[in-house]
Amino acid sequence: xxQTLGVECCQERFHAxxxxxxxxxxxxDADEGEVDEQDGLLLPVAxxxxxxxxxxxxxxxxxxxxxxxxxxxxxxxxxxxxxxLRFLVARDYDVKSAAATHRDALRWRKDFHMAAxxxxxxxxxxxxxxxxxxxxxxxxxxxxxxxxxxxFAHLAGKERGELLEAQRLYGFWGRxxxxxxxxxxxxxxxxxxxxxxxxxxxxxxxxWTKYALAAHIEDAFQAVRSESLKRKx
Length: 233
Description:
Layout: E1 3-6, H1 10-13, E2 36-38, E3 41-43, H2 45-50, H3 55-67, H4 81-90, H5 95-112, H6 114-121, E4 122-123, E5 145-146, H7 158-170, E6 173-175, E7 187-190, H8 197-202, H9 206-232
Antiparallel strand pairs: 1-7, 2-3, 4-5, 6-7
């Protein structure tokens, strides 16, 4: 039986504070045009809060934007405020470590050929050669959809055919086209019980399955990211 996961937007995950815990939020009550400056770089704290980042994390997101030398309007590559918050969470809010992880992620996307990988397994979105979406998602649903590979895998070239066959035979994952009926979040399904790990190894499909799984994880990430951006546009 597959397990269905409703993926919540990033903002909602970080509002869970202990009851009775108080915090002085005076610093965050900035006018929309007000910014803080550090090392000559503008840190648009008010804009970051407006984008959906909880106030207690806004300064760290601003510092991360400065560390990465991002402009206030930049959403790519992977640098809208909520996505940067995800990098901070992954590194326990250490700005230097989050910046290093962000740079590593962008380097990996290019080296892994994410643009080509996504074009092999589906369509509906375009990518730059560096492996990031070529269009800003604000206000739009993520349009990439996995192709029904079972009908044309045998028509593809040898390498592409093996990639598609790996997904068809051993892919235990997917994203439903419909969203969660209550909060509109993307729904990711993993049928782990159907995974034939032995066959993946026995049939020398490990490399191809890795690419298919990477395309799925990217699809899930961008679908959640798009929903976050859409709610705050």
